[in-house]
Amino acid sequence: MILTDSLLTLFLKTRSDTEEICAPLQTEDYVVQPIVDVSPPKWHLGHTTWFFEEFILSKYVPGYERFHPEYAFVFNSYYESVGKRVVRTNRGNLSRPTVSEIYEYRDHVTTHLQTFLEENDEEHIQELVEVGIHHEKQHQELLLTDIKYILGNNPLLPKYNDTFTEHRVPDVPTRYIGIEEGVYEIGHQGTDFCYDNELGRHKVFLSEFEICNTLVSNKEYLDFIKDGGYKNSLLWHAEAWDWLQNENVESPLYWHKIDGVFQQYTLRGLSDIHPDTPVTHISYYEAFAFAQWRGERLPTEFEWEVAQSAFNWGTRWEWTESAYLPYPNYTKAPGALGEYNGKFMVNQKVLRGGSVATPQNHTRPTYRNFFHPHLRWQFTGFRLVKCK
Amino acid sequence: MILTDSLLTLFLKTRSDTEEICAPLQTEDYVVQPIVDVSPPKWHLGHTTWFFEEFILSKYVPGYERFHPEYAFVFNSYYESVGKRVVRTNRGNLSRPTVSEIYEYRDHVTTHLQTFLEENDEEHIQELVEVGIHHEKQHQELLLTDIKYILGNNPLLPKYNDTFTEHRVPDVPTRYIGIEEGVYEIGHQGTDFCYDNELGRHKVFLSEFEICNTLVSNKEYLDFIKDGGYKNSLLWHAEAWDWLQNENVESPLYWHKIDGVFQQYTLRGLSDIHPDTPVTHISYYEAFAFAQWRGERLPTEFEWEVAQSAFNWGTRWEWTESAYLPYPNYTKAPGALGEYNGKFMVNQKVLRGGSVATPQNHTRPTYRNFFHPHLRWQFTGFRLVKCK
Amino acid sequence: MILTDSLLTLFLKTRSDTEEICAPLQTEDYVVQPIVDVSPPKWHLGHTTWFFEEFILSKYVPGYERFHPEYAFVFNSYYESVGKRVVRTNRGNLSRPTVSEIYEYRDHVTTHLQTFLEENDEEHIQELVEVGIHHEKQHQELLLTDIKYILGNNPLLPKYNDTFTEHRVPDVPTRYIGIEEGVYEIGHQGTDFCYDNELGRHKVFLSEFEICNTLVSNKEYLDFIKDGGYKNSLLWHAEAWDWLQNENVESPLYWHKIDGVFQQYTLRGLSDIHPDTPVTHISYYEAFAFAQWRGERLPTEFEWEVAQSAFNWGTRWEWTESAYLPYPNYTKAPGALGEYNGKFMVNQKVLRGGSVATPQNHTRPTYRNFFHPHLRWQFTGFRLVKCK
Amino acid sequence: MILTDSLLTLFLKTRSDTEEICAPLQTEDYVVQPIVDVSPPKWHLGHTTWFFEEFILSKYVPGYERFHPEYAFVFNSYYESVGKRVVRTNRGNLSRPTVSEIYEYRDHVTTHLQTFLEENDEEHIQELVEVGIHHEKQHQELLLTDIKYILGNNPLLPKYNDTFTEHRVPDVPTRYIGIEEGVYEIGHQGTDFCYDNELGRHKVFLSEFEICNTLVSNKEYLDFIKDGGYKNSLLWHAEAWDWLQNENVESPLYWHKIDGVFQQYTLRGLSDIHPDTPVTHISYYEAFAFAQWRGERLPTEFEWEVAQSAFNWGTRWEWTESAYLPYPNYTKAPGALGEYNGKFMVNQKVLRGGSVATPQNHTRPTYRNFFHPHLRWQFTGFRLVKCK
């Protein structure tokens, strides 16, 4: 458990970090929701605030008055057990509360929570604050990827700023790392923060395998495209193939073929595609098809966790072959917080690692990210494992 | 034809009127598009500006440089013959150009057109400017009704301002006006501005009829609701009945049943329903069902035009029984401007009159407004004609 | 009013005619519903039977027992006021009752109605029987067009039979017939059967016009296609253009481009396109676009009715420019029979004439057929009127 | 490898078994497709036949002429690499080929394959025949469940026959079986037939667990319903909850509440719900929610496989917690047959066991069935594992 002082510092820093991410935005950028998976930035600002108000201030601060009686409705996300919520597809239809009202709301809640924390050091409260901080850090990453989608799908292709570097070339030569057959332990241990889905440390048996120390690069991916990878149905899952046809997918998200050459939209604007940088903004479907084409496969999340200390990671979320499922004897937290992870454990794939958009210290070897297999707006990549 | 001086004055006034309508808005209100029929206010601001740039400045001003090369794409509406356009359902996904950029764009175009008009008095140009002015006035009304929708569908129910009066009680007792059988002339005459759909003045034969001098009131409409009007399938068109079931329609748009009593959202916020005010925000389907219930009927647009001088009108667009069709030997203007009206002449109903949102001098006895029969976000009402 | 004897004869002949239309079918052909507008033939057989059972036998024959208690549910169509009904899109999901059970049902009802008519000559009953006969005749035409759709959309392109002739070349040279300006009477008169939508004979004023004595031919329509008619957005209504893009429409329904040459599926199987035969299976949208391309227009239903004695008609339903609306002071019949026509009087276009699929004596100069403007599975064509 | 004689016998028996399943059907029952997951029985009859024609006769029998050139198009299912196919949702729109034509097709292919097998004993051919036999056995089960859906969703609720027994009460008392922690081997071994998805025998580590020897019963499931299981969002996955709301699910498929008491449609018609029979026709979502409610969980497919010899199984397919994923180093067969299993390995859950509809000898402890988590038309049930 983090001591109160540093918890308070971390809380305040997290709150201001979120706002810093939004600093380059125009007011209008806070409002729109071009696809259902993306939320308007102002919603993220409000939702992360509501979380502290709903689960701490309104429960533990005697006489606390909510900033606005309707905000619980507007900024609830999926917490079915905490009253009605705004349907996700409608978030982009709400012009009010305004951005500046939401910043006031943030200040209000931050201040009240600060006061409360300065006078209260119960462990239970501190645990809730810690959950709230990590919840907000998760939304920091989503904020950035949602902002990229909002700007990158505008016909004017405006840039976010001039400094954000998406581009990371590996500094080691590519090679395969062998891991021996054996029984390994999986899952979080120790007293540091983790989500409930990482708990339930348990053993798995792994056959020996060889895993690549680098992610698949743009250059390799371009070879796949040139070789007709998007045209060969045998490489794809049946529902991936349908998705491909319906959405006319022919390259990673944000790639634009201009005068016959691919370029990509980045947070700095349109730019060349660097051949040695890991490919990103691809779906699990595409990662899988690429692996089929190469005669290799994706690692399971267990293989990844066991092998991860032998390679560098953290610049791209890595699709694994594993479905997002509970660890043995996983149990949900009681009440609304129990809705946090468990209710999503169906039809999603696990991603491991982290990305250029992940907040500092917000990832670890046991962290289990998850998305539906067709989604591409996160900074997603993949590494390969050899087939025997 | 209006003389240049007054045309210029009218042009400048129209441009500033549009902006005045937007004065009470927050930046965020300019951006959203909660349903496909509503456009974001910033789109209206840009589109009305693009119209002058596309059809006048870029064609007739030598060396004119467009304010931005992509705006023609972003702000085109339905003019298929003038290049690609933003799909209507995507308008609310565009955070850029920003509101202030669009105001700059407006200034740019207004200034250039002003300069051009001060040096140019060709009749053809003046006609185009006049079309552009009337086009912008039409959008002024849409701006206001779209703003009402944007605010009125927000769970916070914010008001537009404290002064806008939707409420108009008729100052005469209700009675039926008899019109004799005969051949009447329909359509615009004279040299004042009108749209092409009003031209082709022609004769129609009308049987005698009796038309009400006032619109159906909230009180009367409440009686219809109380009598089970929304539950009786025999009163409704087949597709109206399907619409009713799918959309769970049980009252006019913007009516909220609170503690068992109907209230309505207005541009001043939530308020009581005034029994003597004409009912508004109802679809053609509802107007028709009410008339069936009363054993009366809606007037045709011809009956309305012939009788209109005998009653007051202009506070509510009035649904008629007439489909929106070309007058005999109607011909579209050549080129893109010909797309203005003719291409909508199917599956829509004619509305006559005007509303509290209609700009001054922007209506006349021959004006033909038109909407799909299920739409309700305009200030729509209706009057009855007796069945023989 | 038809005398009982001949009414009975007509009733029996109508019942057997319906079954004769189905004689070439395989059992499987009776079952499917490839699009929502088409009904399975077995449904037509049951529905026309249910009509007599519901509105006559069960009401007027003391002690009559329905053939099956659930059939009223299965075979009701749109009569909302007569209990629940099978949603139209589900009709093709019902394998039971079987075809032979439905033929038994037909025999049962035919026999009971015959017995009843032999003992009963009340005028009210005879009127209902007459409505039922005409209702069944309408379904005879739908049966044939639905069968054509079912077979013509099967990849095996099976023929219906070897004898049905869709092909009718006009036997007179094409010319335009002038009609003088004046007030004309429109609508049914006399005591012969007609639908309620033809009643309310009334006057209309028509300007002078010139109408073509023949329908637009395949040859003319091919010229339109070759000239890029389907590619020129300016010729089309806005919603027609959307329909075109969504459905990839590039020619009339049932046309197949095989080795660069159009052929058409007919009830006799695939065949060449005869240049002088009227074009058929086109939507109102296509008729309108063709007229735009030719610089002419479609007649209104009133022009058609006034001019029709001067030309031959009856081989193709003719789209008119008129929306399907009630005649002045039209009133629906009370109760469920009132649902027959009036509830469809919105968003549809009037067609006049008749087709190769129309039963003998089932059309007349005042007959108002109606369909949505995008529909093409009826034998639809059109004639032109000159624009002044 | 099965010797040729018994392979031929098995082939012929399989072909006739399929037809026996269809014996109680009316011709109409062969044609319809009420939901996308269900195929018309005549399609199953044709598709299993096409499989032999496509992969054996047309490839290995010199001069073999296909029964009909278009059948490969009509009866292909998902084999993208073998030419165009009928979109799955359109199968129910095809009245041709007729049922009797398809039976002729079956005879033709059966006879040709019999002749070929009598003269040919190459192992490769025999392997393909064996795949075809197992493919047809899989479709036998689907035939029966699809027939149940077709009849059970007809408002007349016709029965299939009087003899088919869905109902199986366990003959042992319920108890939990303990399995010790350890490394276990999973997957098929030996030379008997199995699918590629069972191969790649490999080790897994299992913690100790206790698994129930009987399936959850109707009585237990009724308790869940009575306790508000379908109303408590906390028990459900997020997308399960959406599914529940959209589809108005309140009980297992085929349950009808009649006068306040649940009854169920079975292949023998409507019947009482037997309290001790395992609950069936439930989705994975429902199985999961029930387990949450009970504070237990579903077994993984590995736990199931390891424990299965200690309990009886085979009357209901059992949902497991496992996602349908490739075993380590799984490789697809080359070419079209490789499309058989691997392409479905995403977004589905594994079911183990077998059901009353499974053909004899068509299941085994390593058999991996799979369906999307919302599907209910198979005979699906589940057993529980205790949470620690």
TrEMBL record, chains A, B, C, D:
It comes from the Bacteria. Pathway: Amino-acid biosynthesis; ergothioneine biosynthesis. Keywords: Iron, Oxidoreductase. Residues 176-308, 314-386 form the Sulfatase-modifying factor enzyme-like domain. Residues 11-141 form the DinB-like domain. InterPro entries: CTDL_fold, DinB-like, EgtB, Sulfatase_Mod_Factor_Kinase, SUMF_dom, SUMF_sf. One of its GO terms (biological process) is ergothioneine biosynthetic process. This is Ergothioneine biosynthesis protein EgtB. It comes from Aquimarina spongiae. The lineage of its organism: Bacteria, Pseudomonadati, Bacteroidota, Flavobacteriia, Flavobacteriales.
